Amino acid sequence: MLKIGITGGIGVGKSIVCRLFAILGIPVYDADTRAKWVMHNDQALKEELTEAFGPEAYTEAGELNRTYLAKTAFHNPQKLELLNSLVHPHVGNDFTNWVEANQSAPYVLKEAALMFESESWRQMDEIIVVSAPLDVRIKRILQRDPHRTQEDVEAIIAKQLDEDEKMVRAQHIIYNDDKQLLIPQVLKLHEQFLSKV
Fold first, then answer.
1. Would you list which residues are annotated within the binding site for ATP?
2. Neighbours of 24 (CB within 10 A)
3. CB 15 within 8 A of CB 174
4. For the packed helices 77-101 and 31-41, what is the interaxial angle rounded to 10 degrees?
5. 51-71, pLDDT tens digit by residue?
6. How many CB atoms are closer than 10 A to CB 175?
7. What is the domain partition of the chain in residue ranges?
């Protein structure tokens, strides 16, 4: 089965592109959502996170303490690397099981903001990068997340792999720059992928 990765920095519009593929009947694995699920439900990972970050990593009710983990890891590169190194292998296993469950589809998509950073691009046959100009991205994020400041957004973008680097490493680029229509770009790729299966 053809496995297509879809990535891009915050605010480029990966989710809307994935929704278009989903309308075409293509299963989409949302790595961020599944990572949260795995962190809540994978007992081995829960033990690893508790050992690495202390008992505060989970509440007394056994819920993931996202605020604590974000505060601990986001401002400390070593802790962030540790968090990712623990979570990503479990998400990789979850994705493998999900692919098995979707064998009837012509191809599948995996949406992940950190496709290259997490090395999960290695599981993919081809990569799509969704691209948008920086000013458009910042405007979108501030509209979507009014609690964030422009400085917050710029800090997040600065931590992500440079967009030009992602575009060089991808086989396909979808431009979501508010100038080019998304649907024709998605349909063209959909036809290309179908022709390969």
1. 11-16
2. 12
3. no
4. 100
5. 999 999 999 888 999 889 988
6. 17
7. 1-27+107-197, 32-101
